[in-house]
Amino acid sequence: MTPWTERLAELIALPSTADRPDELGRALEFVVGEAGPGFAVRRFASNGKPSALLHPPGADGELRVILNAHLDVVPAPDEQFVPRRDGDRLYGRGAHDMKAAALVMTSVFREVAGELPYAMGLQLVTDEEVGGADGTGHQLAAGVRAGFVVIGEQSGLKVVNESKGICHARLETSGLGAHAAYPWLGENALLSLTAGIGRLLERYPVPAAEAWTTTVNVARIATPNQAYNQVPAAASAWLDIRYPPTDPDFEGRTREEVARHLRKVSGLAATVDALGPPHFADPAGPGVVALRAASRSVGYSGDLLRKHGAADGRYYHALGIDAVIFGPGGDGQHGPAEYVDLTTLQPYHDALVGFLRAFGGSSRSRV
Asked: Within this chain, do residues 259 and 306 fall inside the same structural domain, yes or no?
């Protein structure tokens, strides 16, 4: 049993989803408590999402390193908040994404933050799964800065220095309502919508296997219909689009420019609700080099990795701050069989400690 197993089980049992603000607060206080006394705790809140930044007393300026962890999870049935151990695997919602990493990072912070020759921080947020604007984004808007950032999302102790951008968009169409028995008297808005989605998927087909390309996920299709025997007069769809920095259709574009592009391809009305840029950290930068070496020192490859999912690193990247993802092993995040590999937690801890103690690269000036 690792030193974190029992406390991790307690943290998993907190259903800290976006629709449960009290549980978000409980999860945050749980982990702040794990850091112990003797640290300054700056508290933030935005749109009902609490967050915190912990650092040694007196470290009021730019922090040399920040360890970033999110404590919110995606919704799940109640049984997934009952942790279950099977050998070296601990199952439960948030076990891998990313409550295990949060506890290990907090343990590392507690152990070494007071002894380092530079100031470091522990950033705890509760909104990453819904975009991060009210956690990491809000703290950066309030002036928080760092020289280098390690985000504890899952990576199997590889170093993720590049992530795709994210676009959340809506397609909408209208038609003419009619009795379903006489469809020729109406115009089915849902059929127009699915045809437009088809055109979009022709432009961005679903890959047969992992590929560093733009993908479009149709997350929801809806009509206002309340009965079977109606031709729908309106229909809408939610799209989750992930894109690499090499895609000129999205990279460097504004929301309105992307919306115009989606309208052109689909032939439908399009609105972009959220647009986050890709993230990239210089593989030759001192932080990346030191972290890869620390991973190798505990028996892992330290390989660089691209990540298809967006994370809070994009908020740092937008300010010219290198941020990477570096987390423990496991699998099944956001699914019914999510688990963390408990055998990776001690090496993960040791790699972080080794990185922080060895990190000697010079800090660049920041915005």
From this structure: no
